[in-house]
Amino acid sequence: MKKLLSFTCLAVLGMTSINASAAIVLDRTRAVYPGGAKSISLNIKNESQKLPYLAQAWMEDAQGQKISSPFVVLPPVQRVDANQKSIVRIASVPAIDALPKDRESIYYFNLREIPPKSEKSNVMQIAVQSKIKLFYRPEAIIPERGAVWQDQVTITKQGTTLKVNNPTPYYITYVGLAHPKGKEKTAIKGFSAFMVSPKSEMSATIPEALPDQFIISYVNDYGGYMDITYQCSANVCRAVKSE
Fold first, then answer.
1. Residues 90/39, Cβ–Cβ less than 8 Å
2. Does the pLDDT value for residue 191 go beyond 80?
3. Quick check: 40 and 96 in contact, CB under 8 A?
4. How many Cα atoms occupy the beta-carbon half-sphere of 15 within 13 Å?
5. Is residue 58 pLDDT above 90, yes or no?
6. Pairing of strands 184-187, 30-34
7. Got the DSSP string for 189-206?
8. Which pLDDT band holds residue 5 (cuts at 50, 70, 90)?
9. How far apart (Å, rounded) are the C-alpha atoms in residues 181 and 199?
10. pLDDT at residue 21 in the model
């Protein structure tokens, strides 16, 4: 969307140049806020070698509305000098006690860079914005380190539709499908990522019908992609758990 906007502006403004390169970057692609914590810290960096930037941060709810409860961002705006690092804190307020204690809740952290005013004329500057998921994980469901719960999910094949049942208290995001090929795999092109809410069931459309064994990839707490092999019987598929 931003690339389309850039080219449109360029066509209209003729000789006007556009600066759309990102400077303020975040150290992760998702965050988990553990129950009982007063705050968590996210690291940011200004990758510009010459210019200072402002970093503006805020929280949104699941509907994309800006919020100041049950989480606040500190500081909401800060200056980050060229090639320097800084920290953004996400802190909870008392309203967090009203969130469900038996499952995760989802929010979104936003980070927008604000460039310094250009000294050149006819320059359009675009503020690049990052948006990541933040999962609030109540104390009662914080797992042991290294625990895997994604293999508890049951998947039912219905032609080019997958019916995904997630009995766990966690959100699970799926990012890929593949055919097993010995110790390797062949990715299925055209797969669209989707997220399953805690203790819920949903249907997802896939590019092609799957065989009785397939690999599905999910995103772990650290933003890494992990594979699980599924074996099907009468179209009901369960994870092949490692011994």
1. yes
2. yes
3. no
4. 3
5. yes
6. unpaired
7. TT---EEE-TTEEEEEE-
8. very low
9. 32
10. 64
Token code pair at residue 169: 């208290």
- DSSP calls for 38-62: SEEEEEEEE--SS--EEEEEEEE-T
How far apart (Å, rounded) are the C-alpha atoms in residues 100 and 102? 6
Task: Quote the CA–CA distance of 57 and 145 in Å, as a whole number.
Answer: 29
Tokens of 57: 């941060």
Can you tell me the mean pLDDT for 138-148?
Answer: 95
Assess whether pLDDT exceeds 60 at residue 215: yes
Beta-strand relationship, 129-137 and 105-114? antiparallel
**Across the chain, which distance is largest between two alpha carbons, in Å?**
67
Query: Coil, strand or helix: which one is 86?
Result: strand
Is 225's pLDDT higher than 50? yes
**181 is written with which tokens?**
């090929």
CA distance 121 to 49: 22
Q: How far is CA 88 from CA 29, 61, 62, 107, 241, in A?
A: 15, 18, 21, 16, 38
Q: Mean of the pLDDT values across residues 116-123?
A: 76
Burial class (CB in 10 A: 0-12, 13-18, 19+), 135: middle
What is d(CA 76, CA 95) in angstroms, rounded to the nearest whole number?
Answer: 19
Return the SS3 of 174: strand
CA distance 96 to 94: 5
Q: Residue 3 is encoded by which pair of tokens?
A: 């690339």
CA–CA separation, 5 and 149 (whole Å): 41
Is residue 33 within 8 A of residue 42, CB to CB? The reply is no
The alpha carbon of 221 is separated from its chain's Cα centroid by a whole number of angstroms, namely 10
